[in-house]
Structures are given as structure tokens and as C-alpha cells.
Specification:
Order of helices and strands: EEEHEHEHEHHEHEHEEHEEEEEEEEEE
Distance between the termini: 48 Å
Strand content: 25-35%
Structural class: alpha+beta
Strand order of the largest sheet: 1-2-5-4-6-7-3-12-13-17-18
Number of helices: 8
Radius of gyration: 19 Å
Number of strands: 20
Mean pLDDT: 94
Oligomer: single chain
Largest sheet: 11 strands, mixed
Length: 310
């Protein structure tokens, strides 16, 4: 485990907790969402997140035993309390301490790892309900990598391991293309699916495939995708306006049912869409799905994807 100053250490069925500071019931938060693409956290994004949380009681939810965010936050700002809550089994939802920790948080952040660990453990439990209730109450929420993946209305679950863009494009119904819907209810991310490590791992075709599957499976007729590069963050205000920070770019994709020509088992995806690519300091309005950036038409065909500037 990374360096920690936790003074309250607890363990029970399906969970471990490390907390420093004394949490309070008072809440003075402003809603908002931090979407981080992975590799490294973006310090300006975390300062924004902590400010939205009123520098109050911060809870990082994760599936792996690492308390490294404690040292990170101590470098950035003073908070009333900080807690790492590792959840490894659904029986953790039966512990009042676990649920109360989430219910009383002023800021919730979901760490990286394997997103199926979150879906497997939280789904249908008091943990999932508490996280959604906190978000609805105006508590800022964030996620990086796997934590980012679970924030949209639609989620690539990674239940059967990850999949590359080439593999997904070749067969949109590959058994590894497993999606879930409405795991969390995050304002502004309705009808959206997100992906991380975006440019670095060449995931444009993969995200377009996920979007096409949500349409083919009848979940939505108009799907939006958000791909975020490593060391990059999108800061989403409660009014739907997002700002991009960090070293890379954020990709905002859109496709509709009429753009899906072929999305069938064992056949390469044939689909079109559009993308807007925004870099540091740029803004995007998720309500109107518009912003200033480089615009591309994207097309999947014959197992590959191309983009053309507009």
C-alpha cells in the first residue's frame, strides 16, 4: 500500500477502509463531474473537484488495496477528511459503515482498475443506491480509466476481458463486447458511453462499435461517446458545459440509428458518425452537443475506421 496517514482503519466482509480526519454531517457541495482518461491524474482537475466538494469529506472508491490518493490529495489541498474505501464483495453493502461512508461523502471518486469489479460488486446493492443518491443530491463525482468507464449511462463492462478496436470492428458481437445500461445516473451523461486511454490505445473504432451496439440492441436511437486521452480530464459543470484540461484531447462522438448500416454477429461493422476533438482550455456543451474544435466525419468499414476532417 502507498503512504498513508490514516488513523481509522477498518475491515469487514467485502471491504477495507482507511480514513484520516473526522467526517461531519454538514454538506456544502456544488455538483460536477470529473472524467479522467488514465495514466496520470490531472492536478487542475482534482483541485476543481475538491473545491466543488467544499474541501469536505472525500471518499475514493476502488477495488484494489491502494491508498495512494491520500498522499496525492495532501499535496493539493486541505480537506476535512479523506477515505479510501476498497470494495471487493457485494456483502460489503450489508455493513452500515460502508453505506454511511458513501451517503455522507462530499465528493466521490472512482479509481482505475477493472470496471467489472465495480459492476460485479455494486449492482443491485445498497452501494449502488447510495452512490446514485449522493450524485442526485449534488455531490461531485469523478472517475479515471475504469472509474471513468462506469460513469456513462451505457458501460463497456469488460466482463470477458478487454477488446481492441480491430477486434471489435471485425465483429461487434464478439463475446467480449458486453455492455450494461444505467449502472450509475450521472447528470449530463445520459445516452453516453465513455472510453479511456483513447488516442494512446487507438480506441476510436472500439468506441464507435460500442455506440453501434447500443443502437442495435435497442437501447437508444441516438448515442453519444466520450473518449478521453491519457493525462487529460473533462470537467463537467452542472449546467452541462465541459472544459478540457491536460496534455491530450477529449473526443466527443455522435451517431444515430440511420448511420448504422451493418451491426451483426460475425460481420464487420459498417457505420458512420461524427467527432469533435477538443484540447486544453476548450469547452463543449453536452446539452447541445456542440463546441469549438477539430471536426471529423468517421466511418467504419471492412474492419477498420477512418476519419476525415470537415
Amino acid at each position: 500500500m502507498a503512504e498513508t496517514e490514516a488513523t481509522d482503519v477498518r475491515e469487514g466482509p467485502g471491504f477495507r477502509s482507511w480514513r484520516r480526519g473526522d467526517p461531519a454531517v454538514a454538506r456544502r457541495t456544488a455538483g460536477g463531474v470529473v472524467l479522467e482518461g488514465g495514466a496520470d491524474d490531472v492536478d487542475v482537475a482534482w483541485r476543481w473537484f475538491l473545491e466543488r466538494a467544499g474541501h469536505g469529506d472525500i471518499v475514493v472508491l476502488r477495488a484494489t488495496p491502494d491508498d495512494g490518493y491520500d498522499a496525492w490529495i495532501r499535496q493539493l489541498a486541505t480537506v476535512r477528511s479523506f477515505q479510501t474505501l476498497q470494495l471487493t464483495g457485494s456483502d460489503a453493502a450489508d455493513d452500515p459503515f460502508v453505506v454511511a461512508s458513501i451517503e455522507h461523502a462530499d465528493g466521490l471518486f472512482i479509481a482505475g482498475g477493472d470496471q467489472f469489479d465495480y459492476i460485479r460488486v455494486w449492482s443491485g446493492t445498497a452501494i449502488q443506491r447510495a452512490v446514485n443518491a449522493s450524485i442526485a443530491a449534488g455531490v461531485p463525482v469523478g472517475g479515471i480509466s475504469a472509474g471513468l468507464a462506469v460513469l456513462g449511462e451505457f458501460v463497456f463492462t469488460a466482463e470477458h476481458d478487454t477488446i481492441t478496436a480491430d477486434e471489435a470492428l471485425a465483429d461487434p458481437f464478439d463475446e467480449r463486447v458486453r455492455l450494461a445500461g444505467r449502472f450509475l445516473a450521472v447528470p449530463g451523461l445520459e445516452a453516453a458511453i465513455s472510453d479511456s486511454h483513447f488516442s494512446e490505445r487507438g480506441r476510436l473504432g472500439r468506441l464507435l462499435t460500442f455506440m453501434a451496439r447500443t443502437i442495435a440492441d435497442g437501447w437508444a436511437g441516438d448515442v453519444r461517446g466520450i473518449g478521453i486521452d491519457e493525462r487529460t480530464a473533462v470537467l463537467l459543470e452542472a449546467n452541462g458545459v465541459a472544459t478540457v484540461e491536460g496534455k491530450g484531447a477529449a473526443w466527443f462522438l455522435r451517431t444515430v440509428a440511420a448511420d448504422i448500416r451493418t451491426c451483426a454477429p460475425g460481420r464487420p461493422l459498417e457505420a458512420a458518425g461524427e467527432a469533435l476533438v477538443i484540447r486544453e482550455g476548450g469547452t463543449f456543451d453536452l446539452r447541445s452537443w456542440s463546441g469549438d474544435g477539430a471536426r471529423y466525419a468517421i466511418m467504419a468499414s471492412d474492419g477498420s475506421v477512418v476519419r476525415d476532417a470537415r
